[in-house]
Structure formats: C-alpha cells, structure tokens
Amino acid sequence: MHDCCNCNTIMSLRSSKHRCVHPTIAANVDHNIIMSKAKCRKMLYVAALLSIAVVARAMINGAPSSACTDISPALGHSGASQSLDNSPFSLNVSALTAAGGYTPGQTYTLTLTGTQQYRGLLVQGRRGTTPVGSFSGGQLTQTVCTANTGVTHTSNTLKNNVQLTWTAPPKGTGNVAFSYAVVVQNSLGVSTYYATLTTAPIIELGGSSTTIVSTSGVLLCVIAVAVLVLHV
Q1: Angle at 173 between CA 221 and CA 126, to 5 degrees
Q2: Longest dimension (CA), the chain
Q3: Distance between CA atoms of 101 and 95, rounded to whole angstroms?
Q4: Please, what's the b/e burial string for 205-218 (b: 16 or more CB within 10 A of its CB; e: otherwise)?
C-alpha cells in the first residue's frame, strides 16, 4: 500500500470515498472519463442538430402554438425582425369595415396582401391581448393556437393574397383587432420576418352602444306621445 502523500500515488477526487489509487489505475480512470466526456459532447451536438431540424421543419409546415403568445415567428428563423414602418404587407379586412364593423357569429373573408411574395404567416383576432373569434383552414392554411383562434401556413412555398376565413366571436365581445406576422426570404436565402403587425380596431355591430341608442330612441318616442296626450 502506498502513502497518499507519496509521489507514486495520487488522490482520486472522482472516487466517492476519495481513496488513494495507483498512478496506472488513475491514468486509466482519467482516460475513460475523457472519452466519456467526448462522447457526451458528441451526443449533445447531435441532439442539438436534431432539435434544430425539428424546429426548422415546424416552421416549414406552419407556425407552432408557442408563437401565438407574441405573434412572432422568431424561433427557428435565422434572420432578424424587420421594421414595422417598412412593412410591405397588410391584412385586408374590408369585408368587415365596409359593413361598419362585424356581426357576432358571422363569417368573413380576410386577405393577406403584399407588394412582394411571402413564405409564412400567422394571424389572430384579439380583444386587447385576449384571442377572440376562430379561423377555418384552407388550401394554403391551417388553424393554430387555442380554440383555432389563429391561422398559419401549411408550407413555405412562395405565396401572396392568401384568403383567410374568420368567424366573429359571440355578442358582447367588443372591438376586435387582428395581429399578424409574415415571414419572407431575402436575396441571400435568409428567412426574415415582420412580427406583431396590427390592424385598426373593428367595432362590434349590435353591441351595447347600439342598444343604448335604440333604448334612447324608444324613450324619446314615449315622452313625445305623453306630451301629445297631455295636450289633448
């Protein structure tokens, strides 16, 4: 047995009992640990590549539900978010605005247009930060987010003027605005995006304000009739 203080032996800190071991044994242990670390690093590297591949595939087939919180496709895209002031895209909601607002439960067609083609999209109707209404999937789109409150692309092929089918929320919801994001690809093949674009608020038809006006009108009529009766 060698003394632990002798130069011919070393203290193995890797042993649970901190026992003294012979240099040859220690060298073998160190070699095995180094090899294990190398294998571990290699496995982590492979796992990282696989996870990136999975995320990239998810972006190709549509935005994940995790993007519904901020309406941002940042995860999985190497490019940066573009300035909203220079956005070449807009969500056409004329089907709602032409009527002066939306009717609860009614279905409308929206169109995502742009001066250039795009590869991905994510759109959601909101009352403040609360998702409202629901979308239906189409030829180029599929629903996403809780209760189908969002819609996204089915592939990353170039597209433009994609039509979206949205069903308005129930009566009493109030004003609704649409938040949306668009993913494009620049000349270098890098995916960049415009996130959290927003339409102007769209009022609810037949809501509380309309009811108040109608009630006031009835009240005025009652007063007018009462005055006429008194005159007679």
Answers
A1: 145
A2: 127
A3: 9
A4: bebeeeeeeeeeee
CA–CA separation, 5 and 16 (whole Å) = 19
Q: Is the pTM of this model over 0.90?
A: no
DSSP secondary structure string for all residues of 125-182: EEETTEE-SEEE--SSEEEESGGG-EEEESS-S-B-SEEEEEE---TT---BEEEEEE
Separation CA 74–CA 195 (nearest Å): 8
On whether the CB atoms of residues 143 and 151 are closer than 8 A, the answer is yes
12-44 pLDDT per residue, tens: 434 444 444 555 555 554 555 455 666 656 665
Rounded to whole angstroms, the Cα distance separating 102 from 75 reads 33
pLDDT band at 213 (very low <50, low <70, confident <90, very high): very low
Q: How many helices (DSSP H) and strands (DSSP E) are in the chain?
A: 3, 12
Q: Which residue has the tokens 């690809």?
A: 185
